[in-house]
């Protein structure tokens, strides 16, 4: 079982496919950009971009839509990586969208995750991006499984799963009318296991919270919620200190860790292979409600 997990014959194929897609976007788009948050999938995507374009600079900037409620370890890693690579980073700030009134929250501690689409569309309009490359994968969530690698968005930034282009024989139609754009997912065909296998083989550094560490948490809706200034337990919710790691990272208000003893990529691989729950199903509070369903958010312009 362990050898089956750690020896994916098709990983080189996935790498070549992703590099081909990155180069295809660079060749066909007028103003592309690569989404980089400091999360594990975007770190893998960044490594693939290095293989596609180094020793030259990337033919596109990096973009992060920052909710302002991020884990500090991830933001520090993001900044250090950008400095290391000497690439341009454009930050779309949800906080700025709130200040100018395009996003309205009931209270400061409300989750900003679902509102990222507004700031994203504002950033696309400001910089006139026509192709945004992101690290979403089909295995993460059922709405993402419907998405093509070149995902067409209309002039309002909206996604219609019934109005997408065929992608036969790895041929991609990147033609756009004024105001339209594409979201492109070079690692769409990768799984969570593929990501961790690649991290291990490439010896990629990640934010420390992806590995086992002690953290104060409390239980809510069957998930472990980290104790932060934005996520405080209510009366009756008991705080415990547990060994945990994050399978995915995002807005603090909706991202939950899992109990874990895994301290390196190989141990994470073995833990992940034995998990019966999906990456987002085990770690995202906002995906548990219909109000914040992924498909609805994607139709409104989400990643």
Question: What is the secondary structure topology, with strand pairs?
Answer:
Blueprint: H1 2-6, H2 11-28, E1 32-35, H3 40-53, E2 62-66, H4 72-85, E3 89-93, H5 94-99, H6 116-127, E4 131-133, H7 142-145, E5 150-153, E6 181-184, H8 192-202, E7 213-220, E8 223-226, E9 240-245, E10 258-259, H9 265-274, H10 294-299
Parallel strand pairs: 1-2, 1-4, 2-3, 4-6
Antiparallel strand pairs: 5-6, 7-8, 7-9, 9-10
Helix pairs in contact: 2-3, 8-9
| Main beta sheet strand tally, sense and closure | 6 strands, mixed
Average pLDDT figure: 84
Helix content: 25-40%
Oligomerization status of the protein chains = single chain
Distance between the termini: 35 Å
**How many alpha or pi helices?**
10
Strand percentage, roughly?
5-15%
Walk across the major sheet and give the strand order: 3-2-1-4-6-5
Q: What does the radius of gyration come to? A: 19 Å
Q: How many distinct beta strands?
A: 10
Overall, the morphology is: globular
Please mark out the parts with pLDDT under 50 across 5 or more consecutive residues, or reply none: 288-292
Helix/sheet category = alpha/beta
How is this structure best summarized?
This protein has 303 residues and is of the alpha/beta class. The protein has helices spanning 2-6, 11-28, 40-53, 72-85, 94-99, 116-127, 142-145, 192-202, 265-274, 294-299; strands at 32-35, 62-66, 89-93, 131-133, 150-153, 181-184, 213-220, 223-226, 240-245, 258-259.
Question: Which features would summarize this protein structure in a list?
Answer:
alpha/beta; six-stranded mixed β-sheet
